[in-house]
């Protein structure tokens, strides 16, 4: 099966991340594909995350020659071979059997880091054991502070390099595709409620076999509620709404973790400054891939204002809409230290497990090298805003926040 997956992703028809999206659509039941692919409400922010990259054009320096460009960078004290980290993706095990392990392994093999979501079906210790690469944990407070304290202790003992605390999820966004398709019923419903999924699931026998071999919908082994054990995956929506993270919680997390805390979900300079005040080591300019509050700006659009406010005090990462190496280069030119990729690797995961993630990362690495060479820039660390132009094209009123 592994060879078949490797063959599939090596097909000449798979040349970019969009091709993985098509493969994922063919391999997943519709309800699962839409969960991965979709955004909140009218999906305006989801689309804007991609479109914002079109408004930034390159300013290349020609007639310079490098055999290879230096793609390395350093994020939060970790040396990375690539300026991209794998973002936390909840329910990865529903996309592919033990998806968290597959993604962490592929990240480590590519010389980069993986962020494990709280909404994961695999114990954090098992994920750590699966990869040589740096590993981070994304924390929600579902289950309450006591459960979080226990998880933080486990992450420390396992050797995780930092905590990403996501602040844009006061409640789950209204993803209308999920609501219509019945994603909640697929994950948490009774057998009777699940009958409606039979046609789409039976049409994807490989996915079904893996899902059943994995034992169906797992519990959350990293959210252990005192006296109750691991939280069932089914309670997540309600649990999120009951556990909104506040700045006070961030201060508390910073004190008990005593390592790098990264605030994920910053879209304004005010929140960036508050993150610095609570002791964050980095922030992620992010709108959760357009899955939370619709019509917030594209992350790339919010980036310059935030980079300017942070003024080098802490590291600034960004995510949202990264599908090509050129996108990564643009984000770095606008001040990001590195980016997080979400769907770009998750489509690969859904299409072909570890081999799919590895190939998606390889495509992005080749893209990066080619883009830098065409740009006439020798290294990721040498990128500056002089390589891009953000002025909107004529008869296009969209503007970037000034730097
Ligand atoms: C299917 C899916 C599940 C996600 N789950 C989480 C999560 O559990 N925690 C979190 O902080 N972000 C989560 N995110 C957001 C990603 O970490 C990241 O911010 C986003 O995917 C970036 O946008 P992109 O997919 O366009 O790259 C999820 C995104 C997707 C697509």
What is the gist of this entry?
This protein is an alpha/beta fold and 403 residues long. The protein is built from 19 helices and 14 strands. A hairpin with a 2-residue loop joins strand 2 and strand 3.
Fill in the keyword field for this structure.
403 residues, alpha/beta, eight-stranded parallel β-sheet, two-stranded antiparallel sheet, 19 helices, globular, binds flavin mononucleotide
Main sheet: strands, sense, barrel: 8 strands, parallel
Q: What's the overall geometry?
A: globular
Give the overall pLDDT as a whole number.
Answer: 93
Structural class: alpha/beta
Heterogens: flavin mononucleotide
Q: Strand-residue fraction?
A: 5-15%
What separation lies between the terminal Cα atoms?
50 Å
Question: Share of helix among residues?
Answer: 40-55%
* Total number of helices: 19
Order of adjacent strands in the largest pleated sheet: 4-13-12-11-10-7-6-5
What is the gyration radius calculated from CA atoms? Answer: 20 Å
| Total strand segments | 14
Unreliable stretches (pLDDT < 50, length at least 5) are none
